[in-house]
Amino acid sequence: MALFRTIQKLTVPVRTSNSTNLMLLGRLVSSKAETFLSGTNANYLEAQYLNWSKSRGSVDPSWDGFYESVSGPTLKIEEFEDEFSPKTVSQNKSSQSEKDDKEAKERIKLHLAVQNLIRSYQARGHLLAKTDPLNLSIAAGWLLKNQKPAMEMKGVDSVVVAREIGTILCEEHMDTVFELPERTCIGGKETALTLREIIRRLEMVYCGPIGVEYMHLFDMDCLQFMREKMETPGCLERTIEEKKLIMRRLSKAVYLEKYFATKWPAEKRFGLEGGESMIVMLEEIVDSSTQLGVESIVMAMQHRGRLNMLVNVCRKQLTDIFAQFKPMEPKEPGSGDIKYHLGTFIHRFIRKTNKYLKVSMSCNPSHLEVVSPVVVGKARAEQHWKGDNQGDKVMAIIMHGDAAFSGQGVVYETLQLGNLPNFTTHGSIHIVCNNQIGYTTDPRFARSSPYCSDVAKCMDAPVLHVNGDDAEAVAHVAKVAIEFRCKFKKDVVLDLVCYRRFGHSEEDEPMFTQPFMYKKIRSMETVDKIYAKKILAEGFVTQADINKWEKEYNDTLNKHFELAKKVTKLSIMDWIDTPWTGFFESCDPKKVKETGICETSISTIAQHFCKAPEPWAFEVHKGIHKILEKRAKMVKDGIADWAMGEALAYGSLLRDKVHIRLTGEDVERGTMAHRHHVYHHQGVDGATHRVLDTLYADQSLYSLHNSSLCEFGILGFEVGYSYSSPNLLTIWEAQYGDFADTAQPVFDTFIVNGESKWVCQSGLVVQLPHGIDGAGPEHSSARPERYLQQADDDEDVIPDLDDKNMPLNQLRAANWIVCNVTTPANYFHLIRRQIALPFRKPLILMTPKVGLKHPYYTSPFKDFVLGTQFQRVIRETGPASKNPKDVKKLIFCSGKVAIIIDELRKEKKLQDKIALCRIEQLFPFPYDLILKEFCFYPSAKVAFCQEEHKNQGPWTFVRNRLENLFGKKVECISRPPSAASATGIKWIHAKELKELKEKIIAL
């Protein structure tokens, strides 16, 4: 490389006589990107130069001029060297270049720091937001106390939010102008701001009365939307009319609570004092939703503030509310419920848009969050009926308490349904009425995260925290939330940070447990006074205006208080949240419609259910073909198994325009692989063939969907769905019957007593696979005793057995129906009866496991035809019935144990000595048919047999009813009492079964 270094030091004379030299230099000038001195050329030139210097004849003469010119003074090669070539530069130029480079790097470093600063505020500014009206806590404090105990609060801003301040960005940079990155809107139309102004605007947006968590969202459009709505200068400004409207709404919310406290000071009502701005939030959502095309809102909320919400948002008549405070005889039968659990609905006229909006507030138990999935299910059902496939017209608003939102798992179960294709409502608005306390429990003992709303972040939902005492900020986040939901069809969470002015209820003394907090609360002005001072100072209203509004509302309250005195009877019907208009009027209350179907329909549905898709179009698993071949043979023989009974029931209802929704963890195939209503293509991933979707051209929708693994949330969802209309059949099937245990609050608060408390009828069917067959304690019993124990029936009262309408009257009076059927035909009629009844009742159905494919659980097609019906009891039809006087033992039973009894008496040749009677409908109890069977065998001793343990199963329910009916003791044949529902040890199972059989045949 000696030549290369030499060329760098020497000049090159331009010889116009040498064309080759000019050509080479021309190339040098034309391309500094890669010269002839670059790379491997330098090595080549140096070798050639050494040869030329030794003997000029050894190199082509055209190079003579070039190599001779290296000693000339006219041209410097270094001027044409590329950036990768070694250089020898003067000391002064090198120093200047280094200085420029250093300054450039510093500028880049500062700009990057500003970008990081902005992003830090966007991601973590909420930690310093002043959202607590009591000013007792900030989220950053929670982080430092829990994660860095030794760190002092001093400097919390730089530690928790933006570490660039005070390290890279110092006081000397505060007045430096920086270009704003594209991913922020704080500049508005400006593209550059001083650092001081950037920080001021970021503090105002992210560390003021609103704390925004949105940087966890996956969708970049969602991120940009939130930036625009929160960062754009002036976005929080309200017009004069909007300010006046906020003031009037606050006055109504505050004065209603004051009126309650004045008139009924000792009455428990769970008032909204301290959180009255929630009315402003809801009213803003209601107004804005109609502008965005929403026609119906389904709401749920906790008891705190419910009366205020019913009046000021749902527009429930004040007279009806005030009447609830005095004891009155109800007009209708039923238990009714306390006033702060009741719901309502109204078609409300929105003056702002001149549109009507249906607002429905769902009834709710004190188990606060049980209603969450119920309301989501109701919204989904209403979307179905309206054909609202994108959630443009119907949406759900769910209000929560802060301790419940973070503490109860059903909140997560509800949230995670949000994006499931068969459960989504295309976005719900969740509002947390954040009292900063759960009954008497401080947040630090109630959750392990800084915010009560943190569970929502794993569902891709933005969270907006807002100070409940800043009414304009509350209105702004409400508007942002409804616009976000309607634009992106995703969940959004509003965390309204407020406080309870009194205790958990008006009867509590909060100073017992939170003395410091309540000393602060007692010094707080009400939110209407705070806002009044603000707008009075701005000059938008006068004190006379405010006094006028307050007087007008007080006059209205007094007027309705006087009207309430005239109400003498309480009507539960006035509080229905989902009326079934016209249904009851169109039904004959004394008649059950036909449940049998014609032979043509049986043939059509059965043939369709046995037919596989064309093999060239859809590749079905070979095991399916075997199942279909077996089905076809049974159809040819005129026999239906359980799967065929299901298909005939569902198919005929779909033909009759009844919408069916069947969900559960494995319902498409069936837990025990008996159903197969959905085939999966064996060669194409995700391709399916839904068997019953193409049964009739004009059939109703069959919504058959596997669900997520959450019984609580899914069952609640289906309960809400079933409330929407009487013209649908909603079925939830547990994977195994005892899996319903985790959904017990739904049974206890909605299904078993919803009609009694709130006049909410439901035709929901709950299918619980049941049978003690050696599968262990968690895959055996559906716990029928639990559902029978909740039946609202007096065991000591026998109905009028001569009344021909007794079976229907029993059903009408029952709170639900509990069955354990043993034939496909009976299942068929039972399911169709759910729709044929002139009312709706929930059905708890113990479905078989072994019986799904057992020949005992089959029915001839003649049992499905017109004129046939559900059999509440299946009487003995074998040899014993031919000679009843010789029968030694009459065994009543329910469910799969009938198989054991029948096989055993055949084995022991006792068909004529032991009579078997299957009780298919356990509740309402079929007294009339059981008595007939008992009288038919005058010499037989009576026993009730169950496969469950003695302290479980139907025995505890049927015993007193049988003995009261017969007037004598009834023997119990069962397994011995047990804490577990079944053993998991095969040896014990075999021993128990052997002993059970011995008791059965003992005469």
Automatic annotation (TrEMBL):
Keywords: Oxidoreductase, Thiamine pyrophosphate, Transit peptide. Its EC number is 1.2.4.2. GO terms for biological process: tricarboxylic acid cycle. GO terms for molecular function: oxoglutarate dehydrogenase (succinyl-transferring) activity; thiamine pyrophosphate binding. GO terms for cellular component: mitochondrion; oxoglutarate dehydrogenase complex. PANTHER family: 2-OXOADIPATE DEHYDROGENASE COMPLEX COMPONENT E1, 2-OXOGLUTARATE DEHYDROGENASE. The keyword Oxidoreductase applies. Pfam families: 2-oxogl_dehyd_N, E1_dh, OxoGdeHyase_C, Transket_pyr. Residues 640-854 form the Transketolase-like pyrimidine-binding domain. SUPFAM superfamilies: Thiamin diphosphate-binding fold (THDP-binding) (SSF52518). Its cofactor is thiamine diphosphate. This is 2-oxoglutarate dehydrogenase, mitochondrial. It is an enzyme of class 1 (oxidoreductase). NCBIfam families: 2oxo_dh_E1, PRK09404.1. Residues 82-102 are annotated as: Disordered. Signal peptide: none annotated. It comes from the Eukaryota. Belongs to the alpha-ketoglutarate dehydrogenase family. The 2-oxoglutarate dehydrogenase complex catalyzes the overall conversion of 2-oxoglutarate to succinyl-CoA and CO(2). It contains multiple copies of three enzymatic components: 2-oxoglutarate dehydrogenase (E1), dihydrolipoamide succinyltransferase (E2) and lipoamide dehydrogenase (E3).
